[in-house]
Design a protein that fits this description.
This protein is mainly alpha-helical. 59% of the residues lie in helices and 0% in strands.
Amino acid sequence: MNTLKIPKNHSGISKTLRLPENIVDDLQNLADFKNISFNKVVISLLEFGLDNLDEEDKRDLEKLHK
């Protein structure tokens, strides 16, 4: 089973997202529990999702990077 590793620091750009309230609540609760920022939780989950795409989506994404 894959595990989630929360990164220590990152640099990046600013983006605005509209998220359902229940998801925001869960993410904030996780951030509070782990004593990390909401942003770090979101980044970790997004990275996990990208790392665990199905094979067809991975191939399609790799084609865009070439």
